[in-house]
């Protein structure tokens, strides 16, 4: 085996190329488009890079990669590096308007997409709306751009550096314990930073990357089967995902890296027995992972985010940017090798969030935390209105901005309630909120679509004239149940059983058949599981739009029955 990061390796791309030469016959990637060795994968990367070179790719130029999850999508990203560019991974399952917004904002000229059939063919097109891209401080350092939710309603493109990725690989090997004989699952959506960790750390360490299709990556029987059949030994997951999985089903799984949201003690206890469970904290602006801790299953009453990774620094500061004593809460500032170049085309925001602290450039996270006397860091929540929904960071301001753009909405406020988004809308909501759901689902990822829409005459204000979030509550008597005393049909009972299972209900009866599923706890992210279960159990294909438009079991049962008769 060769060592992880050699002194001659300047970038992760060079390290991966060294792996390809040194272990060409070892398995590299398994995906819907085939199983490839490192040598075969190298050939695929070279083929795509050659096509990009023929398109006169300029060094440091940003290229969008919009290919469904596959060996080809990973190869295309590395091919951009080999050709001298930087990549923007665009998740093909995002709403079209969202995809186009990201590509427009990034100012990319070239878009790499898959040919109609999987294989080694790609389609490289020129963006019709391309204009001169925003200036990058150091294009030679630019490795990738990843977008995060923006508080003003505009997503923020984070400029990732090549030099910041090598410490991530070191962390994966030294602190997370990943090895060349591991089989690592790539479960994260391609447009988030966790996917970068999964693919780059795996290949840089010479391990085997296992890529599920879109259905297999979602919690449920298909994911369980995928992990077992591929004997996955290392996994990156959010606590929300782990909560839905049974750790006893995966005997080959030896390392689980948890991040993206707070790790609850009960989830930590269940997953720490019989394997290594690591809790990690990081943000896009500081390149993926800044802290880590191995969880002791016998000490989970309070779960820390750990200590800093190699090359990272975390300071706990007060409002005047002064260090606070151990045991005192403050805002978390991240410094060190992982700090990125800033935001694409947003110099004012970059100056606001990337600040000088004691002569060091640090990123102001907006997260509150505390460092105890033993050196362990603990996450305490947000200082602003960014929240965690299903492991994703969501700027409530972005959801508000898109909702306010609806022609019928005069004003709105959005807050988080027990892991779900609630929208309070002045105008635009009557007896049916389907139009608002559809509007948002066409423009935002599913996890950013509110579960509940509450019609209000006006938004409550503080004495300073600002919206008072403490006065935003669910209305008195707010309920989803409507007992008509009837008997459930066979289809209603089957749908109700699926809904009850997903929503954690003890039973589903006539009191729920005409209830709004979103008021019962259905979320935009759960809809995917719901329609998939309907397809498996009832043999009827429904789309998420069907659920948005007919959000009761009674209505959906009518659709299922009509489909069976047609």
UniProtKB/TrEMBL annotation:
Keywords, alphabetical: Phosphopantetheine, Phosphoprotein
Domain of life of the organism encoding this protein: Bacteria
Domain called Carrier: residue spans: 489-564
GO annotation, cellular component aspect: cytoplasm
SMART domains named in the record: PKS_PP
GO molecular-function term, one example from the UniProt record: phosphopantetheine binding
Gene Ontology BP term (one): amino acid activation for nonribosomal peptide biosynthetic process
Stored SUPFAM superfamilies: Acetyl-CoA synthetase-like (SSF56801), ACP-like (SSF47336)
PANTHER family attached to this UniProt entry: FATTY ACID SYNTHASE, NONRIBOSOMAL PEPTIDE SYNTHETASE
Protein name as it appears in the record: Carrier domain-containing protein
Organism in which the protein naturally occurs: Amycolatopsis albispora
């Amino acid at each position: 085996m060769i060592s992880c990061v050699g002194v001659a390796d300047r970038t992760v791309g060079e390290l991966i190329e060294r792996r390809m030469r040194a272990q060409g016959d070892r398995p590299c990637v398994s995906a819907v488009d085939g199983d490839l060795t490192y040598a075969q994968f190298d050939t695929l990367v070279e083929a795509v890079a050659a096509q990009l070179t023929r398109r006169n790719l300029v060094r440091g130029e940003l290229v969008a990669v919009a290919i469904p999850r596959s060996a080809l999508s990973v190869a295309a990203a590395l091919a951009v590096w080999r050709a001298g560019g930087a990549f923007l991974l665009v998740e093909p399952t995002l709403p079209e308007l969202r995809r186009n917004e990201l590509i427009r904002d990034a100012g990319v000229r070239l878009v790499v997409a898959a040919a109609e059939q999987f294989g080694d063919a790609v389609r490289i097109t020129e963006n019709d709306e391309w204009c001169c891209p925003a200036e990058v401080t150091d294009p030679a350092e630019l490795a990738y751009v990843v977008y995060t939710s923006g508080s003003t309603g505009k997503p923020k493109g984070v400029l990732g550096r090549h030099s910041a990725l090598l410490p991530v690989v070191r962390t994966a090997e030294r602190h997370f314990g990943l090895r060349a004989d591991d089989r690592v699952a790539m479960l994260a959506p391609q447009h988030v930073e966790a996917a970068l960790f999964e693919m780059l750390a795996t290949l840089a360490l010479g391990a085997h990357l296992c890529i599920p299709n879109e259905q297999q990556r979602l919690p449920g029987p298909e994911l369980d089967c995928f992990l077992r059949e591929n004997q996955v030994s290392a996994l990156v997951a959010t606590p929300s995902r782990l909560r839905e999985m049974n750790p006893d089903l995966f005997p080959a799984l030896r390392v689980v890296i948890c991040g993206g949201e707070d790790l609850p003690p009960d989830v930590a206890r269940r997953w720490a027995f019989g394997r290594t469970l690591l809790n990690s904290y990081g943000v896009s602006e500081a390149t993926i992972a800044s802290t880590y801790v191995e969880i002791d299953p016998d000490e989970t009453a309070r779960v820390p985010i750990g200590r800093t990774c190699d090359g990272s620094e975390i300071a706990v500061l007060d409002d005047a940017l002064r260090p606070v004593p151990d045991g005192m809460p403050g805002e978390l500032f991240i410094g060190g090798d992982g700090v990125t170049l800033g935001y694409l085309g947003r110099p004012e925001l970059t100056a606001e969030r990337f600040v000088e602290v004691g002569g060091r450039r640090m990123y102001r996270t907006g997260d509150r935390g505390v460092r105890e006397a033993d050196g362990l860091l603990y996450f305490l929540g947000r200082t602003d209105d960014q929240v965690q929904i299903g492991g994703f960071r969501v700027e409530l301001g972005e959801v508000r901005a898109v909702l306010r753009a609806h022609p019928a909405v005069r004003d709105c406020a959005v807050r988080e309630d027990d892991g779900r988004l609630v929208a309070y809308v002045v105008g635009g909501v009557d007896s049916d909120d389907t139009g608002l759901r559809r509007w948002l689902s066409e423009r935002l990822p599913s996890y950013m679509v509110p579960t509940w829409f509450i019609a209000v005459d006006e938004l409550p204000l503080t004495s300073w004239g600002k919206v008072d979030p403490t006065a935003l509550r669910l209305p008195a008597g707010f309920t989803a149940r409507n007992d008509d005393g009837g008997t459930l049909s066979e289809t209603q009972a089957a749908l109700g059983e699926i809904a009850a299972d997903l929503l954690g209900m003890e039973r589903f009866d006539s009191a729920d058949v005409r209830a709004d599923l979103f008021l019962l706890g259905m979320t935009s992210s759960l809809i995917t599981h719901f329609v998939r279960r309907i397809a498996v159990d009832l043999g009827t294909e429904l789309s998420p739009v069907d659920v948005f438009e007919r959000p009761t079991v009674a209505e959906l049962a009518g659709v299922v029955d009509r489909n069976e008769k047609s």
